[in-house]
Amino acid sequence: MVILDGGLATHLESLGADLDDPLWSAKLLVEEASLIRRAHLDYFAAGAQVATTASYQASIPAFLRRGLSPAQAEDLILLAVRLAVEARDAHGQGTVAASVGPYGAYLADGAEYTGVYDLDEDGLVAWHRDRWHILAGSEADLMACETVPSYAEARALRRLLDETPDVRAWISFSCRDGEHISDGTPLRQAAALFAGHPRVIAVGVNCTAPRHVPSLIRRIEGKPVIVYPNSGETWDASARRWRGLADPVEFGAAAAGWHAAGSDFVGGCCRTTPEHIRQIHEHVYGG
Questions:
Q1: pLDDT band for position 235 (cuts 50, 70, 90)
Q2: What is the CATH number of domain 2-285?
């Protein structure tokens, strides 16, 4: 089994970063890039074998909206990869996955969890294309197409993958329940888009509630399965606390179960930390 990292933004905030910004973790590419490298190193030290770059929200349009030039935007996207490569090299081993966040992340209105877009498939291809080719030409080992909420966006990403014949990728969807991706398409149907693709190394789900993961694993056929859910926390107003798999030990135990159920790649997403990843390692490998 391959152990992924956890929530990059979550850990950056624990290190003192203020990410209350439309650029989210990509804000630090402009302001405090060394903190991103430190976060990657912390995840490697915790047992992660993959560093997922801080390019989830780092799109060309997002940087242009901030007032940067196209050349500056490209440099920052490449910086996201370079920071992960530097951390990997300092650690001595590991894989660098270039994060390809969905169009909904740019919209910053929660659309990555609904799939409600104002672009069709052709528009999504055009929106993603510049960043895709920048990352395809970078030092990253593969592309991590993450939190994909819509069937149209999945089709668009497959077209871009076909434009770059030397690139490998994984595809992970955001899901509304134990059967459907966020726009209502059955996960089985969405995953089938990539089942026969020779350069897709895994298909799965991320930033989805952990309780849905066992059912979702069963919907994926023809490829290794990747899962890295969020902590599943919800706010209990009466108790004034978050409830879910926030406890790293519980998360690690659940992750061992996901592996036993057929997942070949396991990690965490939002509100998971290096300690969650350490617990995955301990529960799967015994320390």
A1: very low
A2: 3.20.20.330
